[in-house]
Amino acid sequence: MDENIYQIAEQIVQLHQKAYEVYFPLVEDVCSRTVSEDELSHLLDYLLDFACDEKILGLYKRVCRKYLDVYPGCIRDYIEAYREMWGEEDTYGENC
User: Fold this and answer.
1) Given CA atoms 14, 15, 20, 25 in this order, what sign does their dihedral have?
2) Beta carbons of 83 and 91 less than 8 angstroms apart
3) What is the pTM of this model?
4) What are the CA-CA distances from residue 85 to residues 5, 26, 81 (Å)?
5) What SS3 class is residue 92?
6) What are phi and psi of 80, to 5 degrees?
7) What ranges in the chain are assigned the alpha helix state H?
8) CA–CA separation, 70 vs 94, rounded Å?
9) What pLDDT shows up at residue 8?
10) For a Cys staple, 35 with which of 24, 39, 70, 90, CB 3.0–4.6 Å?
């Protein structure tokens, strides 16, 4: 049973690495231009699913910082969604 748990944990790590490899160029693109709120929401939805991983969380925060002044309501909603999903208690701006 311990071997099965180890294998599952390793698969999760690999999945997070693959997600980072896929989402990194998308974040680079979205942060290099101004996108619509719909496009932003789609990307943040995808990132939120993996935001328990520190590297993906970094991408999530980067996008949120970039668009906080452009779409403040949307970003606040995604900050709250992160806190609800992953239990973040700290204030977003102070610990990013």
Assistant:
1) positive
2) no
3) 0.85
4) 23, 22, 6
5) coil
6) -65, -40
7) 2-31, 37-49, 54-67, 72-86
8) 19
9) 94
10) 39
Position of tokens 């779409």? 71
* pLDDT greater than 50 at residue 91: no
Task: Indicate if the pLDDT at residue 66 is higher than 70.
Answer: yes
Q: Hey, what's the torsion of the CAs at 70, 49, 95, 68, to 10 degrees?
A: 0
Q: What are phi and psi of 27, to 5 degrees?
A: -65, -45
pLDDT greater than 60 at residue 89 = no
For residues 72-81, give the mean pLDDT.
97
94 three-class SS:
helix
How much is the average pLDDT of 53-73?
97
Q: Which amino acid is at 4?
A: N
Structure tokens at 94: 């102070």
Q: Position of tokens 């790590």?
A: 13
